[in-house]
Amino acid sequence: MSNSDRLPIRYNPQEFQTQQPIKRHHTARYYANRVRESFTTRVTKILCAIFLSLLLVAGIISFILWLSLSPHRPRFHMIEFTVPGLAQPSRFEKTRITFNVTARNSNQHIGIYYDSMVGSVFYKEKKIGSTPSLHPFYQEPKTTTIVYGTLGAATLTVNRNRWKEFMGDRKQGTLVFRLDITSVIRFKVSTWESKHHKVHVKCDVAVGPDGSILPAWKNKKCPIYFS
Question: Where are the extended beta strands (E) located within the chain?
Fold first, then answer.
């Protein structure tokens, strides 16, 4: 077929250009719903932000109160411990032990009630005597109390054999004892009082041949735990 037999085709380049998107017309109800949804979303975000802010402030206040009101354990330090009879090896019947310990309440706003306090002395893990140290008392915040006691013939169980042990260690230059202090305490904040806690204080201490505390053991901090 020749070219003269073909039908002529009209070519218009503009028809192949990208057509414009069809504009959609929304109703007034559609726009009202969009506005309502947008307003609800904004209000929800504002309320969430306010709630989170209040929660953060409450958390910070609670943390500060906890730091200021959380009770700290009392602190005990060995100040003095003497066994004067060691200087007189032949007079074990008149053995006497004296001790002096400080109890520090480091709390700023919390007081401590001590309902009872007993001091016991151990030598080589064997108890050789005990005595009441202080009557019940109340310790104000940021104060220090001296805990003292004396164990004599009536409260010590030192026989001749035990005294020989003392003398044997005395020749070595050092005798190591342990002072245990037990007490029942309560913490007090304003008008509130905590439950009773049994406290145990363990103070290792060494004395020289003359029965006096060695310098390295003086003012030593004593471990403490509750039960």
Answer: 75-82, 97-105, 111-123, 126-132, 137-139, 143-151, 175-189, 192-193, 197-207, 220-222, 224-226
CB-neighbour burial class of residue 162 (10 A; exposed 0-12, middle 13-18, buried 19+): middle
DSSP-derived secondary structure letter, 70: S
| Model confidence pLDDT, tens digit, residues 14-72 | 554 555 555 555 666 665 666 666 767 777 888 888 888 888 888 777 655 555 557 88
Backbone angles phi and psi of 14, in degrees to 5: -65, -25
Tokens of 140: 């104000």
Answer for the pair 156, 164: CB distance below 8 angstroms, yes or no.
no
* pTM for the full predicted model: 0.69
Closest CA to 97 of 152, 144, 38, 174: 152
